[in-house]
Amino acid sequence: MRKRGREEGQASVELAAGSAVAILAGLVALQLLAAGYAAVMADHAAEAGALALANGRPPAAAARAAVPGWSAGAARVRVEDGAVEVTLVPPALFSALRERLSATGRAVVRRPAWDR
Length: 116
Description:
Strand content: 15-25%
Number of strands: 3
Order of helices and strands: HHEEHE
Number of helices: 3
Helix content: 40-55%
């Protein structure tokens, strides 16, 4: 006869623990993807704002129009001396992480020497 006393629920416990670890790893990966996407979009929006500034249009409106819908309320645009700076706050599971994961993009417009 075999001893079965202590090993009967081991597979269930391992499955539950493994599932929790896999879900946690997936959530961390998704959060990192959201932060990376916010960084790319912040750079894109800053460039759009700088191009608008170079063409005499309002840079803040152009920068806000360049970000996706989910981040329209989470975008901060600052224009100063020919530079456009856009800060995007990505969506996060915990509100304490939002500001820590924010990404800032900056683009500068320089006027040509003959136009000064």
